[in-house]
User: What shape does this take?
Amino acid sequence: MSVHDPDLVAMKEELEAAYNGLRPWAKEVLRLLVARFGPLPAEQEELARLALREGLSGAHVRASLRLLQSNGLVHAVPKGWREHQYRVPEGHAAFWQEKLFPRLEPEPEEASFGAEGVRNEPGDAVKDVLQVLLAASRGELKLLKSGGLSGQSVRRLEQVLLARDGELEASGLAAAVPHRYGPAVAGALHMAAASGLLQVENGLVRPAGEAAAAWLGKPCRVLHQELYAIWKKAVAPTFSGWEFHALYALETAEPGRWYPLNHLFDWLRVCGMMDLDCMAQMGFISTRLVPLGAWGWLCLEQRDSGMAFMLPAPVAALREKDFEPRFAGIIVQPDLEIIVPPDPPPGLWWVLLQWCEWTVRGEISVFRLTPRSINAGRTAGGSVEALIRQMRDYSKVDIDEGVIRFIREQGRARPAESTAGPDIHAKEPPGPVRALEPLFAGATAKDGLVREPGVADAAAPEPEPLPAEVPAAWWTLNRRGHPSTEKEMVRRAIAMKTALRVGTACGEVMLVPLRIHEEAEDWVLYGMQGRLEVRLKPHEWTGLRLVWPGIHE
Assistant: This one.
């Protein structure tokens, strides 16, 4: 869904209008729910505990949740008999992140880096999925009766993938798969299957014909978006609320700018999304950030002052953005080497993998045409004339005629040409064919801000009426009463988890009563006034009245 989609714009306008119509205390409860839980469900009791720190009563929380439900801003998810948890719809999370919290800012451009990269070889999820697709097109992915790949198939993938198991061990991917795959193979195979690129034919995993061809025709930016969404969906069940916020900050970072990691954690704490937790921060680095680097979605840099991250320009891209890097073009040298600058189109990379040997890996890659590699391309059903056309289309300079002659001569010595192109375009073989299921259930690409039809949501309850057992005067009068009556009024407020309006010499203030402390000849009221805990004796106020949120304020 594009950021300019009319439905998306309309929904943002609806959310903005609903938010502007909320009472201040309902806005604060919504902020607490989003900050601490993200799109995860929250218990009402936990929300009340957090709201108390802000000077809001349990009655404020109950009234807020009813109001937020009725406006469609919060869903009540059934938990048990007459019990619910509350959450903001996942599709609204990005809107609230932008609306309620400041943006994470990068460090100044003039700041010195002292660059010492975490990894020497950049990862690339798109290229790893293409390696899976290449192995499938060559018939190298054999399935066992258990449904998993053979050991030989797994080892072949391990040798060619850019992502390394050591970088992905803490992600939990391998542990969630019933087969004995390392996390690099598990992740790449899952992303390919969840993208609809693979199918099972006669005991082999093969490319899914038209779906694979269509996928190769997409811009690299779009493929990175889709694969990132698939990865995030797979690991999201293990997220805590603050991790959703941290990843959103990464997704919307300014491409090419560095962000010190300690700034990210400071930002999370200032926004009220997490408490100081060094172990959680270390876990976030190993389980989230390092895997993002392994798939090429994040650049990580170790400095003397700690770690920093940067969103690479080619994947600027983890959320919808109008950005597409321009490919500089390949250089085909007379010695049969092909120099490939950064950001090649996926379709070109696929052709190079099919027909060449990948000899130098890095930001600038080098491929080599050999008799063996051309034989592999022909065996897979490719056409040397189609290869020559592709090379000429993407070449930055004219290709030496000796290279063209070499390709054609090697092609004549091989099996007869097929005009069908690489194996992903080949006709379906006889026998049953089924799609290869993703390794992690329910993981498919999804836009960040969408409507959620069919959500199991309890109906918003009616406003809670005033308790009948409370004298009517206690809600309206704000003057001194009998000491025993005032004490009973405070006790009722504590029992009902509601607030008091307390008259003072400086005016009326709202107080959430916590407890009464008896003294020898007097008593003391302890309560929360905003974020401050205060103590008051009866002679310090000029009057009391009970407050029922939704009716009195």
